[in-house]
Design brief:
Blueprint: H1 3-27, H2 32-36, H3 40-47, H4 51-58, H5 72-79, H6 88-97
Protein name: Flagellar transcriptional regulator FlhD
InterPro entries: Flagellar_FlhD (IPR023559), FlhD_sf (IPR036194)
Subcellular location: Cytoplasm
């Protein structure tokens, strides 16, 4: 994979992420910042972008999203297939809610 392929893949991921973020922000502006791991102000800005602005922003060669799982405990809570229980998703959500909101 050469550099052009990598940049093309990054732009595709950016576009998919921004479209998802905008959809979540418009559908549920209270829940979206928590799910996306970003501030309420940034979530509101993304919700208000036009399609042309989303495409232009996605064309960046920098990845606009990142893995929100910095803590081993959060990753473990989401991926532990041996200890599955009814409250596992609630436990993971509580751990992730403690992570400070990031910005692009």
């Amino acid at each position: 994979m050469d550099a052009d392929d990598v940049f093309s893949e990054i732009r595709d991921v950016n576009l998919a992420y921004l479209m998802l973020a905008q959809s979540l922000a418009r559908r549920n502006p209270v829940e979206a910042p928590v799910r996306l791991g970003m501030s309420t102000q940034l979530t509101a800005i993304i919700a208000g972008l036009s399609a042309a602005q989303i495409v232009r922003l996605a064309e960046s060669d920098m990845l606009l999203c990142g893995v929100g799982l910095q803590e081993r405990s959060a990753l473990s809570a989401l991926s532990d297939s041996f200890g599955r229980h009814d409250m596992q998703s609630m436990h993971a959500a509580m751990l992730l809610a403690q992570v400070p909101a990031g910005t692009l």
